[in-house]
Amino acid sequence: MAKMKMHLLVCGGTGCHASQSEVILSNLKEIVREKGLDNEVQVIMTGCFGFCEKGPIVKVMPDNTFYTEVKPGDAREIVEEHVIKGRKVTRLLYTDPENKKHVSDSKHMGFYKKQLRIALRNCGFIDPENIDEYIARDGYEALGKVLEAKDPQQTIDIIKKSGLRGRGGGGFPTGLKWEITSKSQADQKYVVCNADEGDPGAFMDRSILEGDPHSVIEAMAIAGYAIGATKGLVYIRAEYPLAIERLKIAINQSREYGLLGTDIMGSGFDFDIELRYGAGAFVCGEETALIHSMEGNRGEPTFKPPFPSVSGYLGKPTNVNNVETFANIPVIINKGAEWFAAIGSEKSKGTKVFALAGKINNVGLIEVPMGITLREIIYEIGGGIKDGKKFKAVQTGGPSGGCLTDRHLDTPIDYDNLIAAGSMMGSGGMIVMDEDDCMVSIAKYYLDFTVEESCGKCTPCRIGNKRLYEILEKITQGKGTLEDLDKLKNLSNVIKDASLCGLGQTSPNPVLSTLDNFWDEYIEHVTVKKCRSNQCKALMQYIIDAEQCVGCTACARNCPVNAITGERKLAHLINQDICIKCGACMEKCKFNAISIK
Amino acid sequence: MTKVKSLADLKLMRAEMEAKLSLREKSNNSEKMVQIKVAMATCGIASGAKDVMDFLIDELDKRNIEAVVSQTGCMGYCYAEPTIEVTLPNQDPVVFGYVNLKKADEIIEKYIKNNELVDGVIPMNYETIEKK
Fold first, then answer.
1. Can you count the helices (H) and strands (E) in chain B?
2. Is A3 within 8 Å of B114 when comparing Cβ atoms?
3. How far is CA A443 from the centre of its chain?
4. Other beta carbons within 10 Å of A575
5. What is the ipTM of this complex?
6. Which chain A residues are closer than 8 Å to B123 by Cβ?
7. Quick check: B17 and A135 in contact, CB under 8 A?
8. Topology of domain A439-526, CATH
9. How far apart are CA A146 and CA A508, in angstroms?
10. How many beta-carbon pairs below 8 A join chains A and B?
11. How far apart are CA A118 and CA A29, in angstroms?
12. Does the global pTM surpass 0.95?
């Protein structure tokens, strides 16, 4: 059936495109045709390989040869040597930066080791609505092993030894949490899965539940056995209907197979899972608020201690872990604590899933070992910044996090380094910003979110954040003063120190982090009333260049507020007091006479 | 439905399922069987993955191509939804992005019938736990 014997894949990503990959494509096509091979060898342009640093890329299939930094002039050699004579063009092969050897089979390239899928191992691989496919991929074997070993403490020790830390953001050691809950004495304990994913831009938990719900169910049962709980609850937002549906199907299938219910695998251990729906309040991702919401009370946090591991759901010891944390558990049990602990950095083990969003070419879900640098994520996985613009910052940790700038590009990413850099891991949203983004506006955006989501229980968070927002609003309106910047800083620190729960304690982070990293921009906003990214409308001025203007009157006719005056065939003028900065004039001008100042 | 009564039971079952899955993946009658996975997470469905899946099932049937079309979760290539993965007999899987009905038709006609690639190939760039 197959007619084509060989494929030459030329990268068509933005980066490679900029370095003439199109010419390479047409040269290859031309030479293949010239040699009369166009019935057997196909030349095609592909999406971005993500490896833009070494572009343009040409990959030869089926032998997986990976050529880097190819120039249009290399096309002939690739066809004549590789395609016809079967000899690889050594000088174009990727060179391993560590041992300086040429790598001919791309499957052995370090580049592919940038991403490792542990939590996402089955996402995009198995049918999430078919338990058989999960079982075929070692599913429920970890639960079987744990139940057969009949030693809950041993399971806890494995998780402790693996170094797994909570993937919901805080980074608390998971094994330790399990141990504390296991030591609490009670007639009933609970395992809770926190699927209340609320950070703007983060969707890894949803993807795991939609793509591999059984991994979470299995891990919850394992946690149940380890801590002595027979009931599991998944707190999931009602805005995730597909995740809920797939989770329900998965729970029913597990019950049918006897993998949930009574006497699981003949061990005498009973465990079952129920769902609880959240209404989408951000604060309910905080574990005490989450528990209150599950109990049917208002989703408000309470002071810790007592920690949920001592007194949680209905006053019983409760172990709350995040979806991604759970998804790691079966692999750790199956492959061993040492295997897992060998991945990642010194204090942060394993991998982290990030949702790459914003001004980046390959927007998507990635899973990388801890300790990877921001540079690797942006330029070797993310395909670089959109439209070749300049990188400015990355926002991590959502409304509780902060910004990382070009100073942090080579900092290894893990829990502790991110906190040291004034941000946090959070649940893994990573929003990339370029030179067109105004950092004061970004801080304002996150504060807007926090003000909306604050539960209102404690004063610093309820009132303090509102005031922070107002000061930021004032600055973006061009009415800010230098004293306002001091006020921002002081108020931020008060909110941080005096708030009750994690939401308030971290809500000033976007402000503090932008003040820290982009002080110049704040100063510009308040002193010379300038926004260098032209995002703050109040600080912008549309100006007509009298020399370019031919007096065609197009701008004046299209101005909705009649702010433009001028005689026909003479230079026009914009009255700044009337102008509403809609930009209609600039759009209509055919002579590029209008610019933003 | 038979229940899983022990770990040994589960292992037996896994062997059986694995055989089934590899039948789907590697295919014993490898001359014919084509495997297609459609990424059907919320984002994929929102971009039209459901229509693409229905189209593939109907059209492959109409055009007498023996194939297994199944749904799966998010592949992570959000910028290129809907995405599908096509595995031709004895070949490495290939992921296609931006698959609308027209593209799906092109994939059947060109790639599945003639092993001719079409635009929109997304190179795979991660490691799996099996290899690690």
1. 5, 6
2. yes
3. 18
4. 12
5. 0.81
6. 9, 11, 46-50, 59
7. yes
8. de novo design (two linked rop proteins) (1.20.1440)
9. 43
10. 190
11. 39
12. no
Domain A541-596, CATH = 3.30.70.20
Judged by DSSP in three states, A237 sits in strand
How far is Cα A323 from Cα A321, in angstroms, rounded to an integer? 7
Q: Which CATH number fits domain A351-434: 3.40.718.10, 1.10.10.10, 3.10.20.600, 3.40.720.10?
A: 3.10.20.600
Count of CB atoms within 10 A of residue B68's CB? 16
Work out the minimum CA distance from A45 to partner chain B, whole angstroms.
6
Tell me the pLDDT of chain A (597 aa) as tens digits.
Answer: 346 788 888 887 767 777 888 899 999 999 999 988 888 888 888 777 767 677 788 988 878 888 888 999 999 999 998 988 888 888 888 877 666 777 766 666 665 668 889 999 998 888 899 999 899 889 999 999 999 999 999 999 999 999 999 998 789 999 999 999 999 999 999 999 999 998 888 889 999 999 999 999 999 999 999 999 999 999 999 999 999 999 999 999 999 999 999 999 999 999 999 999 999 899 999 999 999 999 999 999 999 899 999 999 999 999 999 999 999 999 999 999 999 999 999 999 999 999 999 998 888 889 999 999 999 899 888 888 888 889 999 999 888 899 999 999 999 999 999 999 888 888 889 999 999 999 999 999 999 999 999 999 999 999 999 999 999 999 999 999 999 999 999 999 999 999 999 899 999 999 999 999 999 999 999 999 999 998 898 888 899 999 999 999 999 999 999 999 999 999 999 999 899 888 899 999 999 999 988
Q: Report the alpha-carbon distance of residue A261 to residue A272 in Å, rounded.
A: 5
Q: Which residues of B touch A112 (CB under 8 A)?
A: 125-127
Per CATH, domain A131-338 is 2.40.110.10: no
Q: Closest approach of chain A CAs to the CA of B4, in angstroms?
A: 6
Q: What are phi and psi of A6, to 5 degrees?
A: -145, 145
Tokens matching residue A314 = 């209905």
Paired strand residues for A61: A7
Q: Which residue of A has its CA nearest to B89?
A: A2
Interface touch B42/A240, C-beta < 8 Å: yes
Q: How far is B56 from chain A (nearest CA, A)?
A: 16
* DSSP codes, A434-500: ETT--HHHHHHHHHHHHHHH--S-SHIIIIIHHHHHHHHHHHHTT---HHHHHHHHHHHHHHHHH-S
Dist. CA B63–CA B53, nearest whole Å: 15
Report whether A562 contacts A574 (CB < 8 A). Answer: no
DSSP B41: S
Q: What is the CA radius of gyration of chain A?
A: 28
Q: Look at A364 and B77 and tell me if their CB atoms are within 8 Å.
A: yes
For B31-122, the fitting CATH number among 3.30.70.270, 3.40.30.10, 3.40.50.360, 3.40.50.10540 is: 3.40.30.10
